[in-house]
Description:
With about 150 residues, the chain is of the alpha+beta class. It has helices spanning about 15-25, 50-55, 110-125, 130-140, and strands spanning about 5, 30-35, 40-45, 60-65, 85, 90-95, 145-150. The strands form two sheets. A four-stranded antiparallel sheet has the order 1-4-2-3, with helices on one face. A three-stranded antiparallel sheet has the order 5-6-7, with helices on one face. Helix 1 (about 15-25) packs across helix 2 (about 50-55).
Amino acid sequence: MCLAISKPAGVPIPLDHIHGAFLNNPDGAGFAVQRNGKVTISKGFFTPEDFIDAWLPHAYWRAILHFRSASAGDISRGNCHPFRLSTGGAIIHNGHLGGYDTHTTLSDTRQWVETVLNPLLLEYPQAFHTPSLRALLESATHGSRVAMLLPH
Length: 152
């Protein structure tokens, strides 16, 4: 199973932990950083060295990091997390979304974000602040873990 990390600002992640994350989850990695009210995404890293080079300038900002262990879809940059939310944020997922693993090249999470979550957010940008829609989204993840960074 993938490794998903939600990291507060000012808390470093030891580099040996990043190396270990790649050893156990070798199918691509990425991160999103919340800085100055915006969320930026960097992904498609397939070696710890490339990840660390990109990560270090952002290491003290609030961030979500993801190290992939492919369960569905190709091993590719496009299937690496985080995924851009239509509201400007980013999302990572740890688990498996049954029913969204039918596409031969897209990961389950990518398929769910592209076909369900982002279209919903385009119509209801405040969905995460609406209890009924938030409950619906939580039930759709079937007990998996999801972390997001939202712009503010």
